[in-house]
């Protein structure tokens, strides 16, 4: 917007503005180091403040200044630049209003009292009219809000800051409300488009359209200083913006100003990269300075700590809106900067509420305490896991224990909280994922020789036994810990091995455990016994299915309560049953079927004898030294298998 009609008549010479008219200047206005040689009449006709100052001016007695009226305006908002524009407006010289100078000019006009009482269509009226147009545009509103930083508190008194924030919040919320509809329309449009050759579709997907509708404003607001950004986010939240969009903007903003969020960035490197960032330094090195206008400098540790604590407090409380990776990155940075205990507890609780979404790499939080004992912060992960268990313990919170399922009439639940048939319930999936995650974490921290046995046991025992469908993961962690801590006594080894359930080890893990000399003898005996029992159960199940199929009645549960095996054994049983049914459908069944059933009966009888013999020998041996491995493995039928199997589970 352009104001005035006369050409330029001001000339700058060595910090001095002079008016190039034929009339000699009769007033000097000093603003900081800048001097303006002007005329009284244009100023008197527009500004109430200048009119009062000129009328009250008393020349010095000693005649310093040559008798010319000299005025001091050091505290005018916007400084010399704002007064230059106001002076040109008084002379009706052409000036151009834009989003970057309208706020400063509006504040300067208020300071000079350039109201319509002195001249119609004065500067305040003109600035307000143009400001209304600025606030109608998103980009211009962002620029106007940034310039408010330099004219505080006048901009606050004139409600310019609140008007800019309200305009921005309204526009962002309107777009956010339309995002689901845009995503739905994009999905329909994508489905209607013709596919190219080989089934490749053109155009944006629904997910990209939804993301674009949500995050288009993230980068624009990331240039704001922390106080302005905080007020803008609070205004958006008050207007009903979705928590997902608010969290996305906060994560984008934090990633810009906290380079330490990156997984492999040290504090010193974070400071260096932050100082080299071409627009971010001012938002933190000075808490009230616009980032684009501030000089780029590395923020202090105290500034970063203050920034992080404010960002954590600003995050929405809704679960899942902030990614677990981001929260863990914030937690690492909080420890690095020695943030307040309340801030760290807030982050740990948030992470615990959605721990099933975490990855192992992000969970490896280095120990940065003053008394470092272990490489990784085990206590922190212990607290996070405790928060997870407390947040998921109950009805209607994403997790159901087997006891609650049984009390609620959940028929068919097995002893592990899994329905019969082997398919885990949806309610158990989060805790099952956490169990797998913690088994991996225990395997990563187990080689640390400073990790004490009670701390390892305490962390492993938090996850209940029914959360692990298979105990291969916890077995691997125990084996690594035993290898890294060879000085453990026999009783300590047995105590550690109580963390795993030998009945839930896979065939591969059983094969490895059977020849693992680090395990106590009692545990190896249990592994071999349960493996033989599993083999007997599989053979018995195969026998019952084959017998029923041969009788033409189809597979059905045996009245004796035999358990049909799962996994690979179940596949073998199913294949055998199908073969028997197919052969029975023919007119004459092959005689090999009878021979196979006879062989199975003989094998079952042999296994029963071997089991009885093994029990007698175990009672005779009592607690022998850890040496008769070959004898036990041969008696359980594992001799050939142990010699041929390659241990797939490395103990590191």
UniProtKB/TrEMBL annotation:
Domain named BTB: residues: 25-99
Metabolic or biological pathway: Protein modification; protein ubiquitination
Pfam families, sorted: BTB, NPH3
UniProt keyword terms in alphabetical order: Ubl conjugation pathway
Gene3D superfamilies (alphabetical): Potassium Channel Kv1.1, Chain A (3.30.710.10)
Domain NPH3: 215-534
Region listing for Disordered, in residue ranges: 580-599
Residue ranges, compositional bias (Acidic residues): 581-590
Family statement drawn from the similarity comment of this UniProt entry: Belongs to the NPH3 family.
UniProt protein name: BTB/POZ domain-containing protein
């Amino acid at each position: 917007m352009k104001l005035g009609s006369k050409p330029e008549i001001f000339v700058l010479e060595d910090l001095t503005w002079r008016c190039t008219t034929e009339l000699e200047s009769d007033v000097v206005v000093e603003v900081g180091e800048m001097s303006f040689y002007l005329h009284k009449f244009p100023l008197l006709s527009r500004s109430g403040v200048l009119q009062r100052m000129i009328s009250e001016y008393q020349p010095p007695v000693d005649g310093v200044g040559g008798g010319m009226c000299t005025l001091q305006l050091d505290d005018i908002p916007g400084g010399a630049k704002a007064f230059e524009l106001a002076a040109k407006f008084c002379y009706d010289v052409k000036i151009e209003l834009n989003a970057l100078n309208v706020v400063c000019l509006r504040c300067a006009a208020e300071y000079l009292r350039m109201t319509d009482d002195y001249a119609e269509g004065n500067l305040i009226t003109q600035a307000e009219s143009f400001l209304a147009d600025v606030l109608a545009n998103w980009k211009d509103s962002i620029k106007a809000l940034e310039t408010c930083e330099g004219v505080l508190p006048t901009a606050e008194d004139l409600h310019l800051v609140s008007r800019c924030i309200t305009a921005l919040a309204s526009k962002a919320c309107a777009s956010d409300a339309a995002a689901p509809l845009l995503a739905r329309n994009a999905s329909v449009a994508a489905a209607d488009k013709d596919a190219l050759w080989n089934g490749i579709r053109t155009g944006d997907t629904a997910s990209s359209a939804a993301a674009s509708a949500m995050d288009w404003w993230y980068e624009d607001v990331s240039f704001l200083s922390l106080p302005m950004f905080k007020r803008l986010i609070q205004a958006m939240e008050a207007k009903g913006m979705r928590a997902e969009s608010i969290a996305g903007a906060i994560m984008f903003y934090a990633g810009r100003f906290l380079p330490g969020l990156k997984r492999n960035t040290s504090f010193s490197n974070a400071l260096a990269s932050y100082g080299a960032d071409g627009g971010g330094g001012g938002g933190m090195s000075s808490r009230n300075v616009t980032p684009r206008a501030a000089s780029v400098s590395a923020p202090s540790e105290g500034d970063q700590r203050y920034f992080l604590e404010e960002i954590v407090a600003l995050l929405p409380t809704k679960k899942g809106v902030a990614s677990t990776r981001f929260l863990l990155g914030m937690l690492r940075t909080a420890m690095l900067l020695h943030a307040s205990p309340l801030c760290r507890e807030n982050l740990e609780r948030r992470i615990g509420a959605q721990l099933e979404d975490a990855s192992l790499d992000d969970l490896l939080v280095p120990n940065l305490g003053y008394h470092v004992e272990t490489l990784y912060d085990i206590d922190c992960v212990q607290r996070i896991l405790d928060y997870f268990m407390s947040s998921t313990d109950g009805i209607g919170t994403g997790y159901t224990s087997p006891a609650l399922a049984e009390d609620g009439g959940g028929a068919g639940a097995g002893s592990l909280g899994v329905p019969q048939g082997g398919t885990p319930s949806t309610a158990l999936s989060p805790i099952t994922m956490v169990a797998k995650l913690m088994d991996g974490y225990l395997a990563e921290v187990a080689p640390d020789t400073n990790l004490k046995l009670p701390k390892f046991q305490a962390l492993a025992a938090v996850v209940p036994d029914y959360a692990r469908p298979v105990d291969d993961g916890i077995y691997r962690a125990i084996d690594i810990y035993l290898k890294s801590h060879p000085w453990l006594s026999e009783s300590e080894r047995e105590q550690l091995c109580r963390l795993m359930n030998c009945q839930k080890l896979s065939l591969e893990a059983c094969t490895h455990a059977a020849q693992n000399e680090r395990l106590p003898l009692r545990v190896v005996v249990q592994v071999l016994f349960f493996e033989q029992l599993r083999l007997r159960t599989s053979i018995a199940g195969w026998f019952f299915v084959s017998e029923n199929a041969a009788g033409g009645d189809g597979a059905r549960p045996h009245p004796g309560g035999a358990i049909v095996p799962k996994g690979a054994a179940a596949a073998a049983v199913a294949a055998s049953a199908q073969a028997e049914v197919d052969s029975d459908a023919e007119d004459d069944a092959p005689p090999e079927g009878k021979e196979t059933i006879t062989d199975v009966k003989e094998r079952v009888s042999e296994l029963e004898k071997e089991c009885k013999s093994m029990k007698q020998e175990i009672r005779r041996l009592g607690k022998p030294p850890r040496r008769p491995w070959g004898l036990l493995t041969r008696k359980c039928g594992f001799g050939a298998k142990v010699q041929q199997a390659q241990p797939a589970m490395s103990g590191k």
